[in-house]
Amino acid sequence: MLEREDIYLRTTDDVGISASFVIPTGPGPYPALIICHGMPMAKENNLNVSSKLEEGGLDYDSIAEWCAWEGFATLIFNFRGTGDSGGNFHPLGWAQDLLCALDWVKSRQEVDNERVILMGSSFGAVIAIYVASHRPDVAGIVSFASPARTDTRHSSEELVNRLRDIGIIRDKDFPQSYDDFLGEYKIINPHQLIHRISPRPILLLHGYEDDIVPVENAYTLYERALEPKDIQVLQKVGHRFRSEPDAIGLCISWLRSNFM
């Protein structure tokens, strides 16, 4: 039987982060995997990573259990502004959340600190690339459907209003500075950071039929990344990671070949 812990973490800026940790059976220490979800597309699907999907694809609990059965101690969590976590979305806030999750996982005695890997989807992949580029103790990274650039053509006010409609900005007085909020997107730009992950391995996955983040983004990131690097463009695959068991299986095969 797998062991599961439901936990509530506290970030350095005192935001509560809802998370679940699934631990494999058998002797450890284990390699660890931290899964970073993407941006909700609408208020009605402001996901809670511990919720079960009623139909279609896999929920994050199922993905975490799959990874744990493969031998990876796996953490899933909600970034601030989503699910049962507190706070309001902003890019560097999501980075703080992942750093909190990373430090917590590395504190666990079941975990091999030399083998902690990040796996992110869409904007979660953007954050994973940012954190891995600043934290050399991240052993590797899997990126699914990451944008190559996070520049936006929206005005800061338009962007904040859209995120407020989605429900991931919750407080009426947030942010205090629209310009600072928009500036965070420039700081986390994957195009400028991905080369810093080398010499740790990176896998770039992208669906050929992704209609939200075009596949050209994967090729751009691959060109910017340094070795060791792998890229897989998956035919008949779209943007939503949880809807693609084949992509998840490919991720796990790559993880096992590099970290087991």
Question: Could you write a compact summary of the structure shown?
Answer:
The chain has 260 residues and is an alpha/beta fold. It has helices spanning 60-69, 91-106, 123-134, 156-166, 178-187, 190-193, 216-224, 245-259, and strands at residues 3-10, 16-23, 30-36, 73-77, 111-121, 140-144, 202-207, 229-234. It has a single domain, classed as Rossmann fold (3-Layer(aba) Sandwich).
Could you explain the architecture of this structure?
With 260 residues, the chain is α/β, with parallel strands linked by helices. It has one domain (3-259): 3-Layer(aba) Sandwich (Rossmann fold). It is 33% helix and 22% strand. The chain contains 8 helices and 8 strands, in the order E-E-E-H-E-H-E-H-E-H-H-H-E-H-E-H. The protein has helices at residues 60-69, 91-106, 123-134, 156-166, 178-187, 190-193, 216-224, 245-259, and strands at 3-10, 16-23, 30-36, 73-77, 111-121, 140-144, 202-207, 229-234. The protein has an 8-stranded mixed β-sheet, sandwiched between helices. Strand 1 and strand 2 (16-23) form a beta hairpin. Helix 2 (91-106) packs across helix 3 and helix 4 (156-166) crosses helix 5 (178-187).
Order of helices and strands: EEEHEHEHEHHHEHEH
- The appropriate CATH architecture is 3-Layer(aba) Sandwich
Measured by DSSP, the beta-strand proportion falls in 15-25%
Whole-number count of domains? 1
Strand order of the largest sheet: 1-2-4-3-5-6-7-8
Instruction: Name the CATH superfamily classification.
Output: Alpha/Beta hydrolase fold, catalytic domain
Find the count of extended strands (DSSP E, 2+ residues). Answer: 8
Low-confidence stretches: none
Radius of gyration: 17 Å
Under CATH, the topology is which? Rossmann fold
- CATH level 1 class label: Alpha Beta
Number of helices in the DSSP assignment: 8
Largest sheet: 8 strands, mixed
Helix-and-strand structural type: alpha/beta
